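Table S2 (continued). Query chain:
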Amino acid sequence: MNALSDTIREESTAMIDQLTALGVQPVLLTGDHENAAKSIADQLHISEVHAGCLPEDKLNWIADYQKKEEAVCMIGDGVNDAPALKRADVRIAMGGVGSDIAVDAADIALVHNAGSVPVIINSALLLNWKRK
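Corresponding output:
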């Protein structure tokens, strides 16, 4: 069976690796078919994948992580991501790619690429550490 998937941006793998180095556990929540999702996750070095997710599934996964007292950062780009974005602790929308609804639900909108996400997360961690 063939799996069709989106083209992975060059900076995406480096971004995920940087987030992992910061102690962030990346999770892929996607509406894509399982084969396509696993292909993307493998390329990005993401071990936890939940494919075939409807908007309410993404919302439930985020709630499950929050019940474990884990802070959740959601990165989304479409109307299907808006409910999950609203539920997450930190909400980042890829503004140049998807819907205005996702941007409206986000705290931060990135227009060009996701390469600055590790900088944002690291800054937030440093600010939180200095606050303690």
